[in-house]
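tool=predict chain=A
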Amino acid sequence: MHHDFDRVLERRGTHSLKWDYCERTFGLQDVIPMWVADMDFEAPPAVVEAIRSRAAHGAYGYPSTPDSFWR
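tool=predict ok
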């Protein structure tokens, strides 16, 4: 799988704890937010598609772990 990890997303204005709460947290807006382990790149397409596929199922209960997971 190839993914472009050099493309950085603009996360300001998206309710990002890392970027939108610097001023409230530190009293400054111009801060390098190294206080939270948050990613600034989008998830790989395979991950996004897996989430969409599971979400489309519509049931959000508590699933068990299938035996195939442990192989």
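Residues 9 and 30 are 18 Å apart (CA to CA). The chain has one domain: 1-51.
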